[in-house]
């Protein structure tokens, strides 16, 4: 991140980097979330009709999980390219892949038309989405933070995090109106509309992202001839503990988020009898408040120690795990909305707004893309891919089974995040104390680099 402090929000290039990170990641997560919502609402019927309700839903969530299994592939590919070729080029590639894969899902034949090939092709396109996301989030964090003015570093780091609830709001609005279609129209063609929008949204994101210059920190690495030949191998061999800490930092926020936005939507419809449109409206209200909260927390994190914000948020997630399900199990839409909103604002926003820049802090510049990409990708495998599947196995959406195992999942994930939060402080200090490769740049360049503090 450039040490030169700019007045206000930053200079023109810094603002463009923030916007490119925000808009590009919003497009990618929009594509990702419409799939997650469709998986919980319609995919079990149109792609797995012969499996039965519970098994079909489980198979549908399995295709959702494929993307998270693909994320390490994207992390290896784009982490390497991002540390070798640059952040900007890599992020253009990830956005293109995501947009094309999403649009193709929108024209995919169903089981009734091509049989078993329908879920096979769906799974393949979902895999491509996962590869793209495997390189997107980490690159977006780096693009934003490495270009940030010093006084705004944490808020710039929250740009990809703001994109997540923003995309969720947009995706939920679209899916809300789609879900209000008559069931025959929804299953016949209505579900395709959000996916076809991927072709359009990727163009918007590309226009903004192409106009961003490479980050100053990476340019300084190239000038110093300090670019690593094999950055992924360097991280795996020398910094495996940092990767594990980065994975663990995201445990509580991911488990909480995916229980609410995927599995609990199905529970609300199938166990409590709410209409699909009603469950989406509950999610829309909670996600809208969450979006505002992440912006506020991102601003506060430049004034308050982000580590303290993180630890308080994780502690709340642990303590609210049981009350969340007590409120949800009432079947009352108002109480459900309150439960989701409190959980997302105090347990999700407070952690999610700062975990990106905290992960950024774990790795030095020359291997940062690879390190952050591996943390993000394997956190997706460990927490996001497993959460809806494990929930569906432990507590079927129909029947008499209770939700205690789900509360236990949140509590366990919160303990992991608390322990990793303690370890993250030490690794941040280690990175701050390491000599920067840019120090070998000739004196006439008059450029300094400073890690965010």
From TrEMBL:
Domain Major facilitator superfamily (MFS) profile: 17-425
UniProt cross-references to Pfam families, sorted A to Z: MFS_1 (PF07690)
Domain of life from the UniProt record: Bacteria
Residues annotated as transmembrane: 57-78, 90-108, 114-134, 155-179, 191-212, 243-260, 280-300, 307-328, 334-355, 367-391, 403-424
Family annotation (InterPro entries): MFS, MFS_dom, MFS_trans_sf
Keywords in alphabetical order: Cell membrane, Membrane, Transmembrane, Transmembrane helix, Transport
Primary localization class, coarse: membrane
Location in the cell: Cell membrane
Mode of membrane association: Multi-pass membrane protein
PANTHER family named in the record: SHIKIMATE TRANSPORTER (PTHR43045)
Name the UniProt record assigns to this protein: MFS family permease
The species this protein was found in: Arthrobacter ginsengisoli
């Amino acid at each position: 991140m450039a040490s030169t402090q700019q007045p206000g929000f930053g200079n023109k290039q810094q603002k463009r980097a923030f916007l490119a990170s925000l808009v590009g990641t919003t497009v990618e997560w929009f594509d990702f979330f419409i799939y997650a919502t469709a998986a919980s609402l319609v995919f079990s019927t149109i792609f797995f009709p012969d499996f039965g309700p519970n098994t079909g839903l489980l198979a549908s969530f399995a295709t959702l999980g494929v993307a998270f299994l693909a994320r390490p592939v994207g992390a290896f590919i784009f982490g390497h390219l991002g540390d070798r070729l640059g952040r900007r080029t890599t992020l253009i590639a990830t956005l293109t892949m995501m947009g094309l894969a999403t649009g193709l899902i929108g024209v995919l034949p169903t089981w009734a038309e091509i049989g078993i090939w329908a879920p096979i092709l769906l799974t393949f396109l979902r895999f491509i989405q996962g590869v793209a996301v495997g390189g997107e989030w980490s690159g977006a964090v780096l693009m934003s933070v490495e270009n940030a003015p010093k006084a705004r570093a944490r808020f710039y780091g929250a740009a990809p995090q703001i994109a997540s609830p923003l995309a969720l709001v947009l995706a939920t609005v679209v899916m809300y109106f789609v879900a209000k279609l008559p069931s025959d129209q929804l299953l016949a063609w209505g579900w395709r509309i959000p996916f076809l929008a991927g072709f359009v949204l990727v163009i918007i994101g590309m226009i903004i992202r192409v106009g961003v210059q490479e980050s100053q920190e990476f340019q300084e690495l190239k000038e110093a001839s300090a670019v690593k030949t094999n950055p992924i191998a360097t991280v795996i061999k020398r910094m495996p503990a940092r990767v594990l800490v980065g994975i663990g930092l995201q445990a509580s926020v991911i488990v909480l988020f995916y229980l609410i936005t995927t599995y609990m939507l199905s529970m609300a419809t199938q166990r409590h009898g709410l209409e699909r449109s009603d469950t989406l409206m509950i999610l829309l209200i909670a996600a809208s408040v969450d979006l505002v909260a992440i912006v506020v927390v991102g601003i506060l994190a430049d004034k308050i120690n982000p580590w303290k914000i993180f630890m308080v948020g994780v502690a709340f997630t642990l303590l609210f795990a049981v009350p969340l399900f007590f409120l949800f199990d009432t079947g009352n839409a108002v109480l459900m909305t309150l439960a989701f909103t409190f959980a997302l604002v105090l347990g999700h926003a407070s952690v999610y707004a700062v975990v990106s820049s905290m992960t950024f802090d774990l790795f030095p510049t020359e291997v940062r893309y690879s390190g952050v990409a591996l943390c993000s990708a394997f956190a997706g495998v460990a927490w996001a891919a497993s959460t809806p599947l494990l929930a569906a196995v432990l507590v079927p959406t129909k029947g008499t089974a209770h939700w205690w195992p789900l509360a236990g999942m949140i509590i366990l994930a919160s303990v992991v995040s608390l322990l990793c939060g303690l370890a993250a402080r030490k690794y941040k200090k280690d990175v701050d104390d390491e000599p920067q490769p840019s120090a070998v740049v000739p004196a006439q360049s008059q450029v300094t680099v400073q890690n965010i503090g």
